[in-house]
Amino acid sequence: MPTPENTYALILAGGSGTRFWPLSRNDKPKQLLDLFGDGTLLTQTINRLAGLIPVENILILTNSLQVDAVREIASMLPTENIFAEPAKRDTAPAAALGIGLIAARNPDAIMMVLPSDQLIKDHHAYQAVMKDALACAEHSDGLVTIGIRPTWPCPSYGYIERGERAFIQGAEFQHPPFEVKRFREKPKPELAEEFLNAGGFSWNAGMFVWSLPTVIKQLTKHTPQLADFISELTKSKDILATIDAQFPGLTPVSIDYALMEKADRVLNIEATFDWDDVGSWVSIAKYLSDGGNNNRTNQSISQIDSGNNIIFNATDGTHIALLGVDDLIVVKTQDALLIANRHQADAIKKLSDLLPQNLL
Description:
The protein is α/β, with parallel strands linked by helices. It is built from ten helices and 16 strands. The chain has helices at 41-47, 67-73, 91-105, 123-139, 189-198, 212-222, 224-235, 239-246, 255-260, 281-285; strands spanning 7-12, 58-63, 82-85, 110-115, 143-148, 159-165, 178-184, 201-211, 266-270, 289-290, 296-297, 301-304, 310-313, 320-323, 328-332, 337-341. It has a five-stranded mixed beta barrel with strand order 5-8-6-7-9. Helix 3 (91-105) runs parallel beside helix 7 (224-235), helix 6 crosses helix 7 and helix 7 (224-235) packs antiparallel against helix 8. The longest helix is centred in the middle third of the chain and has 17 residues, at 123-139. The mean pLDDT is 95.
């Protein structure tokens, strides 16, 4: 794998706080919350890079609403490594911004692009996979994706369809890379079931590894607007001014659509580490304490004839009691109370259109 000084990580830490309302807000979304008592998800993302990526080579990209909180949480990083996007432009412009920032420092670097809001507990297994991904990116002309082995036919994730095992000269792998046949959009449940039964499919975890020369070559071919933006950043004598002037004009588009689905060669390494994108309160439930009768809670509750509820109490001095209710999500903060049907957890984000501004 590449030397530490030639290895970089870009952590994407923007996003909104709608899925975990009322605990999360626009200035404090999921990745900035301590949901499990183990530190924020952003802190965990940084910590599992220890010994793999030098702290001075870890960059974080967030937005203006969250940048102060990110700086406080990521105080172990140089302050100049934390950037706020001047506008929301989806993951392809965000990745291009990170590529440009790193290319201005080291044009031959190998870099990882990582979400900040995923739960991964086995750091040893994680680093073993990422070392192979870095080596694969260093010794090949491919863009590397990390895939998650599906455990159920989930219709909410994109899928990666693998082909033959890749031949990469000059490197040996504990976790072998495979050629990617194609990316598959979020499928209907029936098609997701077919993917699961067929094998050879991974969930797309949004983790990418590539060398800067390779990714810039592919962007030049397939998304020249982003390649031009990267070029401007590498030539700029005032990078922050260039970002402010040019980033808002970039076309909002996902990195999958702008690059990964079009690239000449994409390689996939399937993860052997635990992984959870904790995408809703239902996902959080499995990490909460047993409150009896299949109720999951972060604090003690009282209940009679109530089951299968999720209770998250973020207040001191407030006790929650349940009587004759099932399948609820109850979340209490100092200024808001959510009571929702747990089967509609994914729709909680729709409440943001109805809530007072001071609660967003």
